[in-house]
């Protein structure tokens, strides 16, 4: 990643972190004086998210720096790890809030200071709306999974703040109309509504992160696009079969290709294979900037086929110098264990 892009990504992550800690501290303070579980939920939600913010900024730098001696395959998997942690924290806070709201409903509700809650709702709506807009714009500019996760968080946060504001404004209306006895029943339902709105986000975020950590292939559309590009660049070779594996932890797309050639084929030299790798890498890079490609050529299909199809383990066996004509970026070989595409040419 270029230095300017990394700097921009960090700026958006810091903006998000500042927003989280600001709302978290204000929310917990207002909850203490207003006795509102809904406001407390929002405060804890933001503080929980802030706990991972500093790690997020650091990981953005690590991912951009690429591989090193300690992590020879780079830091790509740190992104889904952090996003998964964020999702689990969000889900944990949501579950605790749900339990508290149910308890309050069963015990007759909760009396709160509506004035403080409304003031917090106005403040939170302004902050959440602003940061949601900024991070959503930042996600488009940087194409960063970390910024995108923060943008999703702020959209949920903004929806929550709007619910709090509307509900507590309704509490004042009930008092004006003389229905004071109903006001204790306002706060718990607000929490339940917010939980219903927000619970999908941490579940989806955690599940997506888990699948990336387990090396599951990305969406079919991504695999199809990669396959079409690879096939187009192998067109001049006597390809018997080719096996394509794609994983995408965070922003980095890793592509491992095993090409089975006719055993009678005699290339002009290794430079011919390097030229094909270069063309394929450039083509895939146009489709997705952070793409790492490893292409191996062999005359024996066992070095590329999945174990279920008579292979010797795909990436695990592809380094045998007797059958492979060499490879490009080695970082993808160990991270691309899912067979996605095999076809007789």
| Shape annotation | elongated
Largest sheet: 4 strands, mixed
Helicity range: 55-70%
Our count of domains comes out at 2
| Topology as a string of helices (H) and strands (E) | HHHHHHHHHEEHEE
Give the strand order of the largest sheet, numbering strands 1, 2, ... along the chain: 3-2-1-4
**Which regions contain 5 or more consecutive residues with pLDDT less than 50?**
314-345
Strand content: 5-15%
What is the residue-averaged pLDDT?
Answer: 81
SSE-based structural type? alpha+beta
List the total number of helices: 10
Cα Rg: 26 Å
The CATH topology of the largest domain, please? Alpha-lytic protease prodomain-like
Give the strand tally.
Answer: 4
Distance between the termini: 36 Å
The CATH level-2 architecture of the largest domain is identified as Up-down Bundle
Q: Could you characterize the architecture of this molecule?
A:
The protein is an alpha+beta fold. It has two domains: about 5-215, Alpha-lytic protease prodomain-like (Up-down Bundle), CATH 1.20.1510; about 220-345, 2-Layer Sandwich (Alpha-Beta Plaits), CATH 3.30.70.1350. About 60% of the residues lie in helices and about 10% in strands. It has ten helices and four strands. It has a four-stranded mixed β-sheet, covered by helices on one side. α10 links the parallel β2 (about 255-260) and β3 (about 290-300). α4 (about 80-105) runs antiparallel to α8 (about 200-215). The longest helix is centred in the first third of the chain and has 32 residues, at about 5-35. The two termini are about 35 Å apart.
